[in-house]
């Protein structure tokens, strides 16, 4: 990612991908399934909600050939995610961890600024 790498902060990483924050452009970069995609904060949250809405139990129990694959086409993104059941679970773990770290950083930031006042 060239010079942009200097402006990225890793938020969360698993063995299947990572989420980075770029404060310069106010975007999150997601590394998953061999590619990088950028998302504005609201689009990132929408992607997470879309992923959480996938019924993994139905995917696992449905014997139809097409049932074990889902296609996600996130808002404002040129990337399409074609995910197997395992991919859905790995992607969920990544985005859930990233969101938890974002919330934790926000709490720490607010606490430190409240102490300074």
UniProtKB/TrEMBL annotation:
Question: What domain of life does the UniProt record list for this protein's source?
Answer: Bacteria
The name this protein carries in UniProt is: Uncharacterized protein
Recorded source organism is Adhaeribacter terreus
